[in-house]
Design a protein that fits this description.
Arc Repressor Mutant, subunit A; about 210 residues; 2 domains; mainly alpha; Tetracycline Repressor, domain 2; flat
Length: about 210
């Protein structure tokens, strides 16, 4: 390996370690003070880096916090990431329903971010447009699954996979703002009803 190659690998490794420290620090600070009070300055101090370092790895606090939530729940996110490969393996209601239930279980961590984005349309648009960002992986995975099921004629062909994925997730997290959502059983029952309605609207007529 050339000196330049070794130097590039070293920089990449350092970058990955710094990113991991930022993720860990974000989870720590958010757990202590909540999303609204978790400043980038506090996160940087907890990670032992300069505040500007955050912006070499993440666009803003929203991207950082969302990445932290998803990485902290990697096992759950994997269920969604594997969704496209399950196309045609079982009824759409079972496969997609399970993935949506998995994401719904993250609501308590994702809801503060969602609520913040609702009041800042520009940030919401930026987050949605970040197609190359790993925080958008659940959206892409569901869209890919829908597209594959459409190829199997099991989901309505007129639906746009990307937009449908966003509608599914927006509805799912919107439920968390309904009255009674703090009651776990009530929330789970509402999620189940929503999934039944949403999936029924996707499945192609036979």
């Amino acid at each position: 390996m050339t000196a330049a190659g070794a130097d590039a690998r070293g920089k990449q490794a350092r970058g990955l370690r710094t990113r991991a420290r930022l993720i860990a620090a974000t989870n720590q600070v958010v757990a202590e003070v909540g999303f609204a009070n978790a400043t980038t300055k506090a996160i940087a101090e907890a990670a032992g880096v300069a505040e500007g370092t955050i912006y070499r790895h993440f666009t803003d606090k929203h991207h950082l916090c969302l990445a932290a939530v998803l990485e902290a729940n990697a096992d759950l996110v994997d269920v969604v990431a594997q969704l496209p490969d399950r196309a045609g393996s079982a009824p759409v209601a079972d496969v997609l329903g399970n993935a949506l239930r998995t994401l719904a279980s993250l609501r308590s961590q994702l809801l503060p971010i969602e609520l913040s984005l609702l009041t800042q349309p520009a940030l919401r648009a930026s987050l949605t447009a970040s197609a190359g960002d790993d925080t958008m992986e659940p959206v892409r995975a569901i869209a890919d699954y829908i597209e594959r099921e459409q190829a199997l004629s099991r989901i309505r062909p007129t639906l746009d996979p990307g937009q449908t994925s966003l509608v599914l997730l927006s509805t799912l997290f919107g439920i968390a703002m309904l009255p009674g959502s703090d009651d776990r059983r009530h929330h789970e029952r509402t999620v189940e009803e929503a999934i039944d309605v949403l999936v029924a609207g996707l499945v192609a007529d036979r």
